[in-house]
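Mods, move this if it's the wrong board.
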Amino acid sequence: MDTTRNEALTAWMAEHGYSSNALAEAVNRAVGDLAGRTGGLDGSSVRDWKAGRVRWPKSATRAALQKVTGLPAPALGFVPPGRAAPAPAPSQEDPVNRRSFLTATAASAVVPLPTATAPHRIGMTDVARLQQKFAAVVARDHQHGGMRGIETRALELAAEAIDLQDRGSAGQRVRGQLYAVAAAFTSSAMWAAIDGRRFDAAQRHHDRASRLAGMSGDQTIQFRIWSHAGTLYRHLGRPSAALAANDVARNLSLTRRDPLFGSLGHARHAAIHGTTGDRSAVCRSLGHAQEALDRAESAAPRPVWLEAFYGQSELDSLALAAHLALGSWSTAEAHAHRSLATLRTHMHRSRAITTARLARAQLGQGDLEPAVSTAMSIPHAAVHHPRISGMLRAFGAHLRECAPRSPHTRTWTHYEREALA
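Not the wrong board. Structure tokens:
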């Protein structure tokens, strides 16, 4: 029997955040809806599908799978019986050896199966191993950001965290930690999709991440996911939804226990308020963000994703975004310089974004030569990042609108053709 792994089903489960047990439960419910009686699948049934040991489930199961996934069985990697892989061609081995092999095989068929061993015990060592991989994903994001490779890798690791629960036994605390790690990986996939302007994918990742985070009970990852959702809706031009999502993060009790989380929540609220033109709300939120940041204890233990990026530089970056949206060009420029002065060296993508925003603030004040020089200073390796290239094209459009005949505009237009082609 061909037991080639069913990669299509495995990939679908990883993308949609399903463990083997969770998919079995969903299919059982769908069987009940379709046939009037709940199905009898369990996690081992799904593992048989993934491993290729079952290549074509029963008709009721296939119908239920399509109801759950929206895809027919062949699209999920299942193969009808008539399309089974051909048996391997007979070998040219010595007939005596072949008879010996067949005799040994027949004999082995009647040997009793060994008693099942106790299931593997999953512990905090397994969680720590996954957390180290998560730290690597966060580091790669700050260096590059927005790449499909980061998104794909994060989803693969989320699936690894979920599948680990199906391969052994674990206490409630460890299971909660595994759900939290899976949610963290999925939220990194969500952020990579936001940064890469793949907003439909980001929304799907948010739905899965929030579900996993709810099962984990971990408020730190719940904060990250809903704060990301606020940013997603801000980029989509939906400020009401952005404020509502960010309020979910800001209203977690965690933000009262640790002012650093509270500061980030206020700072992102300010950036959203900027898109609505509410100057007083921007100033009020930034004031709360700065006050909370000043109160935060630097030595307090925090998740790696927060420690990796949030501090005075990021607060100033969000203030820069808010004041750019308001058209407060000189204030925006001041925050840009402050952000760049304290930005950590490994945050290449953030430096490029802040530099592009600085150029826009300078252009808003009519400083054409410094603005063009600033925009052209962004490293060539960064200009093709989807978010940064979009910002630079918008910069060029504003430049041509306000100074169409300027020599600085001609310089930029030539650069744009060469660098952003």
